[in-house]
Amino acid sequence: MKSQFIRYSLFFIWSVLISLGFWACANIGSPNGGPYDEDPPKFVSSNPVPDQTNYRGKTVDILFDELIQLESPSENVVITPPQTELPIIRANGRRVHIELLDSLQPNTTYTIDFGSSLKDNNEGNFLENYSFAFATGDIIDSLEVSGILLQAENLEPMPGITVGLHQNLADSAFTTTRFVRTTRTNDRGRFVLRNIAPGTYRIYALNDVNRDYRFDQPGEDIAFSDSLVVPSFELTTRQDTLWKDSLTIDTIKTVGYTRFYPDDIRLLLFKERFARQYMTRPRWEDERFFYLTFNAPLDTFPAPRPLNFEPQDSAWYVVQPMNGGLQLNYWLLDSTVYKRDTLVFELTYPESDSLNVLRPTTDTVTLGIRRVPQSKPKRKKKDDDKPEPIQFVGMNVDAPSQMDLFDTVSIDFDAPLLSFDKSQVKLDIMVDSVWEPVDFEFFQDTANILRYYVDRPWKYGEEYHLEIDSVTLFSAYGHWNNKFSTEFRIKNEDSYGHLYINIIGIDSSAYVQLLNANDQPVRQSPVKDGGALFMDLKPDKYYARLVVDSNHNGVWDTGDYSERRQPESVYYCPKMFTIMQNFQVEETWNVFATPLERQKPLDITKNKPKEMTKKKRNYKDESKNTSNSNGSTNFLNNTAF
Which residue, 419, 439, 416, is CA-closest to 428? Predict the structure, then answer.
């Protein structure tokens, strides 16, 4: 009886211990810390106080309600009027300290614009568009102007660009004096110039490479407005909505506010056609050619004059421009030249002087080549009678089996040919199951001496046979061609779609470019009779850009500040065009129906706005996951203990 009582007692105690273990598993866990902080830092106090007048100090201390960080203050915090000597800006705990090292101007309003550089320390919530102002005189200037800066050629919003005002209305002010008020564009390309005194101004944008707040570097991106800016304001009202939660409106009330004008300034950033001309280091890596590279394309090709060699033929080289003329390949056709180890020649070419004026300059160029020693040929075995492999001139023919109606056949060689003409190419068409010869166009690429084209007015569904016989072409380096033969077919009409765009609002010379998903043009068509036609498009998704072609040259032209000439106007169609096989699509595009800053589709916009606020988190799921994981660990620990 006693032993039975002991067994029941031990069983009871053991049951209680197990229950306590499970209870610990269910209830012990790390707390989730409550709701996450999703609010940006809040201003508490400062020295001097905001908008203080007659301030004589050179330091500013601003206190916030939580720990803060500054993101790249030297780049993102803008102090205006511009400072010659960079100020000291640092964050410490909840405080921002600014020390101005320049002498303060009398009777001037100073603005410290933090943009989007200030955020809290824990969750990274940004305090956007925060600025602080004080004045050294009796009056604090309070007018504002605002707008947007876009890249002129592709309407990309341009972040981090300096925008400034000049009270001096002369054109020379932009190039000789510093701005009186400045700011910097945010990630959406938008800007606000604050604390402006009443008056009349000119406004500019400047990618200020040397940070001197003036346009004194020809390679800097700029923008300017043809209109004068006169800041003003009006007292008006707007509707303010208060929400109970994310779905329920609490109250809609009318509140008064001050609206500043102009608030719709639009600046178009461009770079003038400028590039200092000079030659970089020449190179000779392949014995067959040496090449020269330049900082900007050349209109004419410099002629080298031999100094340490005498070519046997006056035509001892041919020039192949590469990369749009930035590189010139000099193919050496004379074996007595390209077999040498060193070439010394004189070269005269245009070079920019200190005033950026092109002047002829003459250099002596010395080139050497490192030749790999040829290994000794292996001794042939008695029964090894295999002939040496024949080395043919490299030839690459681009003629896919299914060719587009608008394509041409291209033939690329790896070395210059002594001759290549139409008679050495055969092109046949299939007619009633029989190959018949047809006429075609044959020409050399004007920009690439190693490329040739075979073309004719292809028609839907035609079948062709292209052939080049062997040993008909001879390269400058003693190699014949191998035989080449291929067949290809032109795609049927139902493989394509067609697009016609009715253009509304443009009555001057213009053209439309169809763009791919990378914002790159794939087709171009002039605007004729109020529309642009695109035939035989590959099935795909397209976007459209219109360029007002002021000088009728078929390309976009940039601006010139000295001539007060704006870049040619560009517009984007907000709509995407989906082209399918055997479909004819007609669309209407009113070029001015959508504001310029909202025209470019976000899908092809590269400078997309940054996400400045943390995404909201699911606290319930997070708490559940934390509790489960911690509970399991505690249960194991308690059990082990």
Answer: 439
CB 531 within 8 A of CB 510: no
Predicted confidence at residue 631, as pLDDT, reads: 40
Residue type, position 303, single letter: A
Cα–Cα distance, 623 to 36 (Å, whole number): 12
> pLDDT digits over 221-231, tens only?
999 999 999 99
Task: Tell me which H or E stretch contains 266.
Answer: strand 265-269
Angle between the 2-27 and 619-640 helix axes, to the nearest 10 degrees? 150
| Candidate from 47-56, 111-120, 308-317, 629-638 with smallest mean pLDDT | 629-638
Cα–Cα distance, 206 to 224 (Å, whole number): 9
pLDDT at 2 over 70: no
**Which of 638, 618, 489 is closest to 36 using CA atoms?**
618
Residues 436 and 462: beta-carbon distance below 8 Å = no
Give the mean model confidence (pLDDT) for residues 86-103.
Answer: 93
321 residue type, one letter: P
Residues 6+ apart with CB under 8 A from 388: none
Number of helices and strands in the chain (H, E): 5, 42
Instruction: Output the pTM of the full model.
Output: 0.81
Residues 22, 619, 43, 96, Cα dihedral to 10°: 70
Separation between Cα atoms, residue 608 and residue 295, nearest integer Å: 31
